[in-house]
Design a protein that fits this description.
The chain is α/β, with parallel strands linked by helices and 515 residues long. The chain is built from 17 helices and eleven strands. Helix 10 links the parallel strand 7 and strand 8. Helix 3 packs antiparallel against helix 4. The chain is globular, with a radius of gyration of 22 Å.
Length: 515
């Protein structure tokens, strides 16, 4: 294929690519190859991927083409490539969770989400970089290398799922999968100008997801457009008997909601602006400006805008950083050098306990060790009630505040993050400053509700005159009302497209050496 055709294909939406493959205009192999070429051209700078096996990708795409020709495979995303966060188990491919502890480990089975992707004819391009075991907000805690933001290569792409978001923003893939424990889908989406959705807890199977914090983790779709995210959501969602936390309930028709929002808008929808998340100390003026404009735009589309107060949200960050470390302390105890993964010091001269200690010391990075120690302390005898127990009480208050807010609003909105993308290295030595990036996203995880980040425009970087960076609008909906997210997101996207004179994702100013 010509270079011009290659460039055109990588900038197509997932829905457009699926239609091209279905019509026979292009093959899944051709689509996969142009994206592999794109990865080869730019990922040396972006470093979004940890593993890509081009030969296997082409074999998988060829099989998709064969099944489609025989009439055994159909659907809107057949032949569409995808970047997969390296925290979901994949048979025949490494699953490292961004950690040296699991370097080279190849699981013997696919996660349920991965199986559903394959069954839908989606071609997995490779595994994307992430903060180690999903613990971080910048993808700088990866055990292998940091990932860069395609908007500015000296800035973070968010975390923990910065690899998937960066792959989308650099046009290395049209679709991605992330996981969200306290904002790890939404925060990267916000700072890379992409779409990221955290479904209702239990709405997407966690079977095969390597656990960080079991009561908070959720798999979700990442994309450059709202419709693409909805199409992917429909593929991966639904009850899974293999996951005890999976909800046995119908999946909301998110695709229809996205189409409705783009076509009909949101007339009559009640939008609640959360007072406690609307901006305060540490929120950049440009972020507040774009948020205010997005709210005004929703009102102009027919929404009724009201203010709501959720007083307990101010305690959400503290509660999260007791609950999540406590659960990670328990979950990561399985990495003990005895069954799989890294083993250090096993030369026959040391006891089992010594080998375990040496392995965990060598295999885990500083942030993971920090959270394990915090969690172990919070769960220890004499401190459980004061710390973990109290945090769970705050969690109950957060859920009650959401219930009260949703009594007067159909959806809630806030800035997704307080700032635009900060510079690589800027916060690595200041964990508290890093944690502030998740201030607005954590409450949704504590309550298990649905939430998403949608592009809301550009704001000036406060530390670099002339540099504009993406801002995200967070939309939150009650549990099992995920379709409301897509209706609002699609209406906002359509209005911004009209304002900007073209597709939102096409405005991403990836540097020339990356584009």
């Amino acid at each position: 294929m010509s270079g011009a055709v290659d460039a055109a294909l990588v900038q197509q939406t997932a829905a457009e690519l699926g239609a091209l493959v279905a019509s026979g205009a292009v093959s899944a192999v051709e689509v996969a190859q142009v994206h592999l070429d794109r990865i080869a051209a730019v990922d040396g700078d972006v470093r979004a991927f940890l593993h890509v096996d081009g030969d296997q990708v082409i074999r998988d795409a060829a099989e998709v083409d064969r099944l489609r020709r025989n009439g055994d495979l159909n659907g809107p995303l057949v032949g569409v490539p995808l970047a997969l966060k390296d925290i979901l188990t994949t048979k025949g491919m490494p699953t490292t969770c961004g950690s040296r502890m699991l370097e080279g480990w190849r699981p013997p089975y696919d996660a349920t989400v991965v199986r559903r992707l394959r069954d839908a004819g989606i071609v997995v391009l490779g595994k994307t970089n992430m903060d180690e075991f999903a613990m971080g907000s910048s993808t700088e805690n990866s055990g292998f290398h940091p990932t860069a933001n395609p908007w500015a290569l000296d800035r973070i792409p968010g975390g923990s799922g910065g690899g998937s978001a960066a792959a989308l923003a650099a046009f290395e893939a049209p679709l991605g999968i992330g996981t969200d424990t306290g904002g790890s889908i939404r925060q990267p989406a916000a700072v890379t100008g992409t779409v990221g959705v955290k479904p209702t807890y239990g709405g997407v199977s966690r079977y095969g997801l390597v656990a960080f914090s079991s009561s908070l983790d959720q798999v979700g779709p990442c994309a450059r457009t709202v419709l693409d995210a909805a199409l992917l959501h429909a593929v991966i969602a639904g009850h899974d008997p293999a996951d005890a936390t999976s909800i046995d309930a119908p999946v909301p028709d998110v695709v229809a909601a996205a189409r409705q929002g783009a076509r009909d808008g949101i007339d009559g929808l009640r939008v609640g602006v959360v007072t406690e998340l609307g901006g305060g100390d540490g929120t950049e003026p440009g972020v507040l400006a774009r948020f205010g404009e997005a709210v005004e735009l929703l009102a102009s589309l027919g929404a009724e805008v009201v203010e709501v107060s959720c007083p307990s949200f101010r305690y959400g960050l503290a509660a999260y950083y007791l609950i999540a470390p406590s659960e990670c302390s328990s979950n990561l105890a399985r990495f003990d050098a005895m069954r799989y993964g890294l083993r250090v010091g096993d030369d026959g001269s040391r006891s089992t306990e010594e080998v375990m200690a040496m392995t965990r010391g060598a295999g885990f990075g500083p942030e993971v060790k920090r959270r394990i120690m915090i969690g172990t302390y919070a769960l220890s005898a004499g401190y459980y009630d004061a710390y973990y127990g109290s945090a769970q009480q705050v969690r109950t208050l957060v859920s009650r505040d959401f219930a009260s807010a949703f009594a007067s609003a159909d959806v809630l909105v806030s800035p997704t993050t307080p700032t635009t993308a900060f510079r690589l290295g800027e916060r690595v030595d200041d964990p508290l400053a890093m944690y502030q990036a998740d201030l607005a996203t954590i409450p949704a995880n504590l309550a298990g509700i649905a939430a998403a980040s949608f592009p809301a425009g550009l704001a000036p970087a406060p530390d670099e005159p002339g540099r504009d960076l993406p801002v995200g609008l967070q939309v939150m909906a009650p549990a099992l009302a995920d379709d409301r997210l897509y209706r609002v997101g699609a209406a906002l996207e359509a209005a911004l497209q009209q304002r900007w004179g073209g597709p939102v994702h096409a405005t991403i100013p990836v540097r020339e050496d990356v584009r």
